[in-house]
């Protein structure tokens, strides 16, 4: 995101806060910066913070003993770590039984309920084209191995499947010969897409349980750091499937006389 875009977002947010007379002041800040300093008595809030962004809030926020942390995690696979690293000690003790890699973590957010019908149709067609080209490139190279290609703009769909194959081939220095039977490979892509969809139905049974396992690890970690934690949903799934919210309040005092460290106690 460009600096100009950042400026407009910050300025727009401050204008809204002023309009509604909210005691909020927005600043532009790289939250991944190593020298990040979090002011004391701050209520850390993050909506749909992706991967390392929400994990950074968890680690930095608990290290600074912030009185309250409220966040909605998203895109668990967006991490600099090669594999998933549990945060809580209790989860880490059992993680060797379930060690999801980055591709597994991506499964947790592979769900679309808010996209327009036109977007869903474009996505379906492009997936069919990719699978059709995959069959074609295997035949041309004589290598039975998947060959990933970059993203293809939906704006180019009107050019058709043959143009997509030539484009994908050029990205991988693969010459698509004249006279290629594109109808055959398009039909192949449609058939493969139907097969992949059937396989995904089984995998997607584990999508929400996997996300809950990840988020419960965060909840246990927060409890280990002395927080009282509530896990719930802040909106309906039809608005966004990433509707989980963790709300944690720092607990002070002795075990026999515990109290929240901030007035914003969990109801």
Could you walk me through the main structural features you see in this protein, from its secondary elements to its overall organization?
- The chain has 267 residues and is of the alpha+beta class.
- The chain folds into 3 domains: 1-29, no CATH class; 30-112 and 206-260, no CATH class; 117-205, no CATH class.
- It is 43% helix and 12% strand.
- The protein has 8 helices and 5 strands.
- It has helices spanning 3-19, 52-63, 89-92, 102-107, 117-141, 161-171, 182-203, 207-224; strands spanning 43-50, 68-74, 227-233, 244-252, 259-260.
- Strands 1, 2, 3, 4 and 5 form a 5-stranded mixed β-sheet that branches.
- Helix 5 packs across helix 6 and helix 5 (117-141) packs across helix 7.
- The chain is elongated, with a radius of gyration of 24 Å.
Helix content: 40-55%
Instruction: List segments where confidence is low: pLDDT < 50 over at least 5 consecutive residues.
Output: 263-267
Tally of distinct domains:
3
Number of helices: 8
Shape: elongated
Percentage of β-strand residues = 5-15%
Q: Output the radius of gyration.
A: 24 Å
Structural class: alpha+beta
Oligomer: single chain
Brief synopsis:
The protein has 267 residues and is α+β, with helices and mostly antiparallel strands.
What are the SSEs and their pairings?
Elements lengths: L2 H17 L23 E8 L1 H12 L4 E7 L14 H4 L9 H6 L9 H25 L19 H11 L10 H22 L3 H18 L2 E7 L10 E9 L6 E2 L7
Parallel strand pairs: 1-2
Antiparallel strand pairs: 2-4, 3-4, 4-5
